[in-house]
Amino acid sequence: xxxxxxxxxxxxxxxxxxxxxxxxxxxxxxxxxxxxxxxxxxxxxxxxxxxxxxxxxxxxxxxxxxxxxxxxxxx
Length: 75
What we know:
Blueprint: H1 6-15, E1 19-23, E2 29-33, H2 35-52, H3 56-63
Antiparallel strand pairs: 1-2
């Protein structure tokens, strides 16, 4: 159903300036987030954290695979 969408989606993100494209070899591209991509992703994370009633710092810790932040009253 979604086969063949990865590279068109990456091309769209590249055209919007959200990822930069590099070359690994003649057949392989690499992709990395731009500052604009990070800002957009950060905004989405903040929105999702707000919807879930979480503090963004708690989400940051969980995403970084560090020890989860416990809230007062958690045992």
